[in-house]
Structure formats: C-alpha cells, structure tokens
Design a protein that fits this description.
Elements: H1 3-17, H2 21-39, E1 48-52, E2 59-63, E3 66-68, H3 75-101, E4 108-117, E5 120-124, E6 130-133, E7 149-159, E8 164-169, H4 174-183, H5 185-188, E9 192-200, E10 204-211, H6 218-223, H7 228-236, E11 241-246, H8 251-258, E12 266-270, E13 275-279, H9 285-289, H10 294-303, E14 306-310, H11 312-327, H12 334-342, H13 348-354, H14 356-363, H15 367-415, H16 420-426, H17 460-466, H18 473-480, H19 483-491
Parallel strand pairs: 6-8, 10-11, 13-14
Antiparallel strand pairs: 1-2, 2-3, 4-5, 4-7, 5-6, 7-8, 9-10, 12-13
Helix pairs in contact: 2-3, 4-7, 8-10, 13-15, 14-15
Length: about 500
C-alpha cells in the first residue's frame, strides 16, 4: 500500500468515526507488532518495536534493535494484523461514542425510526449510531412508522463490552422541561422557572411556573400568542394535554391552582399527615377529581401533598362526628376541638393515625388525656368503618337488584316473543314504502237499483252535462248567469267564468 494512501485512509476513518488520528496510528503500530509476534511465534510484547511516520506514512519495524522488513509477515501474520486492527478501531469508536453522548444525558436529540425489534424501537442517530427506545419509554398509544423523524430525550448511556447503548425516552417528564426551554425563550433564559412538573404520558401534564421578573407573566409567556408556543409542544407530544399552573409559595393557593378548572371552596392542611383536605361543591366534584382520578392525582404529585376531596356535606359530617366524640372526653374543651380542626384533623380516623405526640405538643394535653382521645377516636373509627362497609354492601345490593330487574324484564319480553329492540322498532312510524300489518280495507258494493235513471228529474246543469236537454243558443246567456243555481254551478266548476263581462261576476 502506498504510504500517502495510508495517511488518507487514516484521515477518513478519523473523520467518519470521530477518532483522534494519533489513536489510529497507535492502533496500526500495535496491530503490526501483533502480526510480527504471531509470525515469529513469540509472546514477548517488548521484542518488536513498530513506528509509523505521521507525515509520510512509512512503517518501520525493529526486533531488539535490528531492522525487520514487513515483507517477512506471511498470510497468518497479515490476518492477525487485520483482526487486531478491526478490534482496536471498534474499541476506539465505542469510546468516542460514549464520551460524546455521556455529557448529553438529559438533552433532546432528533433521529429517524430505523426498525422495530418486537416492542423496542431502534432510532438512527448521527454517524450511523443507533439509539434504543424500549416500550416502557414510548408514549402509550403513539404509533411511529419506519423513516419517521422523532425527537426523544437521552435518558441513559451504557458502555457495554459489545457496544454503547443509548437509551432514549419520550415518556420521561424531563422531556417536557426541555421542550419548554426550546419553545419558550424566557424559560431557556431562566426568566421563567419551572418549579414542579407531573406527567402521565399520552394523557395530561401539569406544570407549575413562576417568573423572577414582575413584568413577565409566566403563564402567558408559556402559552404564547394565541397559544402558538404551547401548540408546538402539544403537537410534538401527539396531542397530550398540558395544564400550566401559576406557582405560589402558599400550599393552599398552589393546591387550588393545581386543581383547576375546578373551583375550590376550602383547603385544610394537616402537616402531621402530609394531607390536604379540599372542599368543593357538588357541581365541581367531578371536575376536581377528573377522568379516572387523573386531575387530583396529577395535582397531588405536582404539589407534594396527599389530597382528599370532599363535598361540604361530607366535610361537615366528619367534623360533627369528631366534635361529638371529643366532647365525651373529660378535659377536652371547645377551644381544643376547634384547634384540632384547624390543624387539618377533620375525622376521628385522623386522630387515630396521628397519635399521642402531636396532641400533647399542639393542644397541651397531658399524656393520659391524649391517650384517652386516641383510644376513643380509634373506637369511633371502627364504627365508622363498619358503617361504610355496610353502605358499600347496600349500594352493591341495590345495583345487583336493579340489574336483576332489568334482566327479568328482558326475559319476560323474550318469553312473549318480542325483544326490547323489536318493541322499540314497533313504536316507530312506518316509512312511506313500508307495509303495515292489519285488517284489509272495507269494500262497499252498491246495487244497480240504487242509481237513478239518467233521464229522471235532472237539473238543468245535469242535463247540460249529460247532453239530454239542448239549451237554445239565444237563452244560454240568460240561463247561465241566473240566480243561485248559476252561482252553485260556477262553484262546482260546471261552467266557465265569464271573463269578457266583469259586471256579471
């Protein structure tokens, strides 16, 4: 091989595989030395020394200081040089890929869908590098085609003996943060800060934002003019809904904002249990909970509080029962009961769960009284649990009875040979071309004797129609427009209207 051609090949490999040229030159020297050792059947690594001129590309070899021509390398030695060279280049390439991508973990990368291996999607990245997106990191319900361009988050880079594995993700919450940094300049410049984020991939995301500049509206900047900024993010996530919540240092205000679009009436915080009791009106209950509990679940993850949603009736029932229970304990005053409710303990089960310590610290109760409170509330909690279980059983029985009644009604209709669908169809008015079952129409047959002879007592008009009596021409004008008979004949259409004589109309 020409020495200059070797230099050009080294430059091409260094460019394509992002490997340093000196590293490739060192690999060539090691490979040639391995071939010489194989040729002379020695394992002493110091016996042969190989040098490659970086400018001219000339390779020289010495054996213990004595020049050795490369032409002594036979077929076996040359095969060894080739195998060692391929192995070293692959190692260098793997190291280069790892060094390049290990610092890009948590950033967005664009690639093309190359193929699918069962549920795993293989994405072609730059320089023929492939990323792996497992099924667990894909957005549920999203379908990709081979050749489609996708954007994903670099989740992890693993350096394995066989290859470097780049794990990609489109379901990780950090992807939302990176998309906002790219689409919203204020977020990228840190003027607007993303305080918290909760996501259910493919369904909904809640994000809490705040601005360090009072002149910049955090929510408005993220939405953009006519929703242009948020629309780009939603389109990239295949229509996933995004709720932008205004951040507030007050947990009560933040929880109210996180539960929007539902209107919150009251929020009670219990720091001992890490629980927030939210009171909403009956018409806002379904909005606050969301479809399959999605809204309250995301709000709890966004705020870091365990959220219980109650209606005013349920809230008042719990506090009333707690008040009646604590009143029976000697040493517990009305002020103490009010303070318990202010602490967010609105149910007897809360006092059972919180224990003796907080009651002694917050209410100033002695240990004996506090133990009585917890014991009494535990007894009442058992009664509440029994009542709730009985209510569940009653509700289930009512549903089962309703289902059984419906089934019995259907069975009765089937026994009569009529299905509910047929009954519904029978109540519909038939179409214009549809036949309706029923009795045949009545047909009346008249005898010929019932008809009067044509020549018997006919009126002048009937005689004129039948041609029996001939009216003279000179008398037609006087007769046709004479009296009530003419008016009746005109009404029956038996004579024509005299258009040429308006005075006789």
């Amino acid at each position: 091989m020409n020495s200059q051609e070797l230099v050009r090949i080294v430059d091409g490999i260094a460019r394509d595989k992002n490997i340093e040229r000196d590293q490739i030159y060192n690999d060539i020297e090691q490979a040639v030395a391995s071939g010489l050792r194989k040729q002379f059947n020695t394992e002493d690594t110091s016996e042969f020394t190989v040098k490659l001129d970086r400018v001219s590309g000339v390779i020289s070899a010495q054996r213990q200081g004595v020049e050795v021509p490369l032409s002594v390398v036979g077929r076996i030695g040359a095969q060894t040089v080739k195998q060692v060279m391929i192995q070293l280049i692959r190692q260098d390439e793997r190291g280069s890929i790892y060094e390049e991508y290990k610092d890009r973990v948590g950033t967005i990368i664009t690639g093309t869908v190359a193929r699918f291996e069962k549920d795993t999607m293989i994405v072609a990245l730059l320089r023929n590098i492939e990323g792996i997106m497992p099924r667990s990191e894909q957005i549920p319900g999203e379908v990709h085609q081979v050749g489609e361009r996708v954007q994903a988050l670099i989740l992890e880079v693993r350096d394995t003996p066989s290859a470097v594995k780049i794990i990609l993700s489109r379901s990780h919450p950090e992807l939302i943060r990176r998309l906002f940094e790219r689409e919203v300049p204020e977020v990228g410049e840190r003027t607007i800060e993303i305080k918290a984020l909760a996501r259910e991939p493919g369904h909904r995301t809640k994000i809490a934002v705040s601005s360090i500049d009072s002149k910049v509206d955090a929510v408005g900047a993220c939405v953009g003019v006519r929703g242009s900024r948020i629309k780009n993010i939603v389109d990239e996530l295949a229509g996933e809904k995004i709720d932008i919540v205004r951040w507030n240092e007050s947990s009560q205000v933040l929880i109210s904002n996180a539960l929007k679009p539902a209107e919150v009436a009251e929020v009670a915080l219990c720091f001992e249990l890490g629980r927030a009791t939210v009171v909403v009106n009956e018409d806002q209950l379904s909005l606050a909970i969301g479809k399959r509990g999605q809204n309250v679940r995301l709000a709890a993850r966004l705020t870091g509080w365990d959220i219980d949603i109650l209606t005013p009736t349920e809230f008042n029932k719990g506090t009333k029962r707690l008040d009646e229970t604590l009143k029976t304990i000697p040493g517990v005053t009305k002020e103490m009961i009010d303070k318990v409710i202010v602490l967010g303990l609105i149910d007897v089960r809360d006092l059972e769960e919180v224990g003796v310590g907080p009651l002694m610290e917050e209410l100033g109760l002695d240990e004996e009284t506090a133990e009585k409170v917890v014991t009494r509330c535990a007894e009442e909690a058992k009664i509440v649990a029994v009542e709730q279980e009985a209510k569940k059983i009653a509700d289930a029985s009512a549903k089962a009875k309703a289902a059984a009644d419906l089934a019995a009604d259907k069975a009765a209709l089937l026994a009569l040979g009529d299905s509910p669908a047929d009954s519904a169809a029978g109540a519909k008015m038939p179409g214009a071309l549809e036949s309706v079952p029923g009795a045949a129409p009545e047909v009346t047959v008249h005898s010929e004797s019932a008809f009067v002879n044509v020549n018997d007592e006919l009126s002048p008009q009937e005689e004129a129609m039948n041609g029996v009596t001939e009216i003279p021409v000179e008398d037609k004008t006087e007769t046709l427009y004479d009296g009530d008979g003419d008016t009746a004949a005109l009404a029956e259409g038996l004579i024509a209207t005299p258009l040429n004589d308006p005075d006789k109309l």
